């Protein structure tokens, strides 16, 4: 393995010494990857200088890969293009003493982390409320999501008016704590292999475990109405159509706080809701597909290999992206967003072998990148800051390997360190 790295890094060092040397270096790296890595799995690797537009290295950059959570880079770009600095949390129309309102897909309302109550406080101020409950056209789960994962936090149902992050949060303090309390009678204290029944909101929690568990609940409009009435302590009407007229918009929390948590925690729920939220700026009905289609047809119409992009989170294995398209979007972000803000949104990786950003050494970060992992696939896409002060954009995608993912992550980091040191 180290023999391979020596030759790979030697190849990188030869770049910049003339066109012939660059081509020779590329050939040497290609031949070694072919003999050592491709016998086990498939690699795509692209490194570009966004200032000079030079391609420093390219391997299978135009080929499609399963991106896993690095698809959130496209979601981030879409949200930044469509959403203002504050989250549009509700749309509404007043008629006499009645407020008609609808959700926008805002994921932060009473969320266990954000705990945003902007919409709740606003609704409490109105005597009569009527909720438009039929403005979401998408599905609760994304295409290609595993049915058996319904009980885990990484696969939460989507919708127009999510409350509490669409999860039940359970933990043991002096007594059993359940948020929202609406579900307290639905929690069974039992050491059981399931967190929740598949077809009902019956939850299981082992009180001896001592940690906090977030369990997705099954959503529907009747339940959402009950949860709203419970927190507002008043009856709410329902309608299938808002009155005619221009809708007003209520704005909530800061969007960057949502982007950062999506990227740093790789939060699938936030990612998919951000696409739904983005669609609220495009039409009167909500559907993440509309946001994806719009951005690909407009701001990203110059992508040479259009992605197969089916969800905002990257949870689906149906997603297919190329390193070249990843670098293109990363380049647009680098050009359009101030560097300090951009690097704040991306996870920072320091001089450590851990590309997940954990247990970092006190040294200065040199990689700002989003990772993505799903069985037998690992990708890391973002920016590497070199010792000379250059910022380079890279996409490193690995599919279909059988060895431990930790080994792949370590190999990726070794290559990025050499790029940092050489350039």
Tell me what you see in this structure.
The two termini are 23 Å apart. This protein has helices spanning 2-14, 19-36, 72-82, 118-124, 221-232, 255-265, 268-279, 288-297, 323-336, 339-345, 405-422; strands at residues 42-48, 55-59, 86-95, 98-103, 128-132, 167-172, 176-179, 187-189, 203-205, 213-216, 237-239, 248-254, 348-349, 367-374, 377-385, 391-399. Strands 2-1-16-15-14-13 form a six-stranded antiparallel β-sheet, sandwiched between helices. α1 runs antiparallel to α2, α6 (255-265) packs antiparallel against α7 (268-279) and α7 packs across α8. Helix content is 31%, strand content 22%. It has 423 residues and is an alpha+beta fold. A hairpin with a 2-residue loop joins β3 and β4 (98-103). The protein contains eleven helices and 16 strands. The radius of gyration is 24 Å and the shape is globular. The protein has two domains: 2-67 and 321-422, DD-peptidase/beta-lactamase superfamily (Beta-lactamase, 3-Layer(aba) Sandwich); 86-256, no CATH class. The model is unreliable at 1-21 and 357-362 (pLDDT under 50).
């Amino acid at each position: 393995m180290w023999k391979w790295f020596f030759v790979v890094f030697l190849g990188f060092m030869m770049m910049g010494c003339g066109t012939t040397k660059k081509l020779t270096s590329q050939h040497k790296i290609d031949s070694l990857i072919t003999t050592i890595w491709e016998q086990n799995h498939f690699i795509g690797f692209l490194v570009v200088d966004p200032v000079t537009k030079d391609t420093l290295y390219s391997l299978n950059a135009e080929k499609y890969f399963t991106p896993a959570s690095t698809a959130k880079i496209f979601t981030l770009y879409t949200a930044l293009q469509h959403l203002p600095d504050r989250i549009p949390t509700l749309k509404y129309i007043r008629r006499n003493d009645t407020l008609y309102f609808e959700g926008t897909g805002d994921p932060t309302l009473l969320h266990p982390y954000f705990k945003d109550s902007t919409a709740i406080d606003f609704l409490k101020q109105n005597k009569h409320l009527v909720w438009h409950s039929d403005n979401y056209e998408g599905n609760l789960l994304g295409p290609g999501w595993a049915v058996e994962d319904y009980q885990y936090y990484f696969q939460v149902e989507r919708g127009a008016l999510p409350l509490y992050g669409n999860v039940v949060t359970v933990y043991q303090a002096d007594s059993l704590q359940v948020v929202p309390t609406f579900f307290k009678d639905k929690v069974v204290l039992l050491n059981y292999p399931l967190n929740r029944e598949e077809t009902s909101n019956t939850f299981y929690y082992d009180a001896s475990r001592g940690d906090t568990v977030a369990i997705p609940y099954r959503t529907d409009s009747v339940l959402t109405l009950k949860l709203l009435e419970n927190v507002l302590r008043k009856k709410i009407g329902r309608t299938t159509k808002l009155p005619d007229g221009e809708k007003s918009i209520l704005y909530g929390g800061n969007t960057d706080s949502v982007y950062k948590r999506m990227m740093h925690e790789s939060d699938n729920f936030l990612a998919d809701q951000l696409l739904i939220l983005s669609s609220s700026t495009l039409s009167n009905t909500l559907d993440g597909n509309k946001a994806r289609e719009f951005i690909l047809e407009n701001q990203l119409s110059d992508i040479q290999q259009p992605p197969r992009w089916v969800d905002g989170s990257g949870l689906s294995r149906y997603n297919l992206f190329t390193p070249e398209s990843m670098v293109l979007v990363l380049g647009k972000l680098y050009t359009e967003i101030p560097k300090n803000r951009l690097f704040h949104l991306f996870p920072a990786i320091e001089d450590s072998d851990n590309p997940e950003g954990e247990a970092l050494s006190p040294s200065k970060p040199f990689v700002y990148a989003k990772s993505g992992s799903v069985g037998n696939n690992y990708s890391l896409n973002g920016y590497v800051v070199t010792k000379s002060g250059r910022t380079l954009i890279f996409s490193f995608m690995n599919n279909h390997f059988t060895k431990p993912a930790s080994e792949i992550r370590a190999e990726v980091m070794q290559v990025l360190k050499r790029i940092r040191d050489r350039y």
